[in-house]
Amino acid sequence: MSATTSSAGIGPVEALTAKVGAIEVFPAETKFIENSTCINAVTHAALPETLKNFCLLEKVVVITGGARGLGKNMAEAMCQVGCKAVALLDLRREEGDKAALELIKKYGTNVKFYQIDVTDDEKVTKIMLTINEELGGLDVLLCSAGVADSNMPAESYDTKRFCNLININLTGLFFCARAAGAIMIQKFKDSASILDANRNLHASGKPKGSIIFIASMSGRIVNWPQEQCAYNASKAGVKHLAASLAAEWAKYNVRVNSISPDYMDTALNVSSGLDSLKKLWKERTPMERLGNENELNNLAVYLASDASTFMTGSDLVIDGGYCCW
């Protein structure tokens, strides 16, 4: 996600629906699958209790960097487990509109794209408030927006380039977490009058929030052979920010965790110029491959759902064993 321009707003995908009272009517040219492939109230009722915990019925999920790659893949997973709505945030309007339309057609889920530069703190706050109002809540935030710089020797690293990467990967992520967290915390406070007397954090009916950061194994180890001190430092910051917010916000029933992947086989890594590097990366990974684009999905669902209600402040490594050596 780049931070060069900013224009908050909703893409033309919203034109897909015309509201009649409280009912959304989709134009005839919008073709939905006949048999939904996602969890709904009927299929959810038939599930064993353990599987029910992994579902996101009535939950609104916000995903930054959601227009493509890992973010879009995780958005699809959220739709599959029955979330009420998904907000895709990204700077790329064309790709974001396309991703939202694809998910609407495939799952029938309420998906909206919001164009945003995550480094613009005022607009980030406004977008989060808009999402909360338009989609009827904000229960899960998944921060996947980020950029990478490789083969950048520290002694000659351009200052503006270094600061830009930190601003997107760490500062922008904080802006998103702060804005979404404030909404989750207020929801918790507003429910105070109906909470049980001993304020048990997991009392029935108490609002819950989940925030998930996509960090990196680069926040734990130093990648080799490429030099990328800014990226590594940003992801170490992401990992520790998650733990810090988890400690602060646990009293509001807002959980914050991070996922630290290995090299993932995404569009960003599809280049003949990377072939020699990818060979080295695989050799240094016990499973001898890169991660597939959808291999963060199940972990993201776990962290977003009630399957992980006692987990906060954790950084979960999914790296094919890379950090073992």
From TrEMBL:
Gene3D superfamilies: NAD(P)-binding Rossmann-like Domain. Belongs to the short-chain dehydrogenases/reductases (SDR) family. The keyword Oxidoreductase applies. InterPro entries: NAD(P)-bd_dom_sf, Sc_DH/Rdtase_CS, SDR_fam. Keywords: NADP, Oxidoreductase. It comes from Discina gigas. This is NAD(P)-binding protein.
